[in-house]
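In this supplementary section we document a worked example of the pipeline. Step one takes a protein sequence of length 393 as its only input; no multiple sequence alignment statistics are reported here. Step two produces a three-dimensional model, which step three serialises into structure tokens for compact storage. The input and output of this example are shown verbatim.
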Amino acid sequence: MSDPITAIVDHAEKLLAEGRSKDAVSILVAQTRLHQDCFNLWYCLGRAHFLGGEHFEAERAFRAALELRGDVPDAHYNLAVSLIYQDKLSESIEYFLGARRLNPRNPEVRKALLKTLFTLLQRDGASEAFRGRKLAPLIEHPLASVIVPTQNRLPLLGDALSSVHRQSHPDWEVIVANDGGESISPLLESLPRDLRQRVRAIDLPTTRGPAAARNQAIKLAKGDVVTFLDDDDRYLPDHLRCLISGLRGTNAAMAYTATELVRESVHGGVREELGRQRFQPGFRYSRPLLLVGNFIPINAWGVRRECFDAVGMFDESLHFLEDWDFLLRVSDQFDIHQIDAVTAEYRVTERANDSVSKRHSHREGVEAIHRRHPARGLERVLLARKIYLETLA
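The serialised model returned by step three reads:
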């Protein structure tokens, strides 16, 4: 036969299961006055307040429970969540860490902590006064150079080039860098004449990787703004116009737009779309967040030519994540402007490695980028890096 307090808690839990949080609160408040040293009553009261949307009262109840039993990971976690709902994000970190200390393998705690850290790092970035280098205003009608690395994917390359051909911004050129693959001449010769006249191609005799392919193309580019398009991705018609408008309207050295993540299968050169969603929705530009991980795909970028003179080209010693490394070098010296408009498609095939730039990084590569670009004492960045690396293990 259960003791009276257990019976009360069980009854309150039943009420909560029925959606009667107010009734549960009434019972539990009265009982906590009589039994102030009962962890189960305070913990259940915290849940009742939380389910009723009373997050400040839930916080108070969970704090009382923790004072009685600091060894219960769920008490730490639920207190942290009640603080999140009150926008007390910084304060919640302590209790997420308490929950992790007691139960290090709980993926729910790790996910919530990392999400909270990402939000804080975005706020940190927004509150920073940028003191980077200033650029002269971008000219009124800049030429955009579109850099397209490719290797052995002629049908996909044709789609990519066609998406450039449809751009509403009239001043553009394309430089295709064939990274040691089969000849692309037959494809180029089959293009519409007005597109073919604006495409230049270079052939690397051996495969050297995306960084080298892009660098060779950049050296030939004549544009005031340099953009990038992997051969399996596509631009929407206003992509270049949006980037150039964003660069002209700010003093940013680099701008980027939003993209859609498109899952597809490719068989015999025929593409079949499997689904799409916005890529990394909700992320706002923040250098502190960028120090943890890369959330800006390269096909979204527009880069002022001056950036390459200042920070150099892509690092050809990196076999992947060379785009993230470049972003960090740019963001250390210049402002980066985010444009909240979907203007490009980031397409992923069923074959994970079927891409010019490796779409799935490895933990070792991320750690190498972290070593290259130290957090310089930013405690939240250091903690977020640690948690983020755990997700890659």
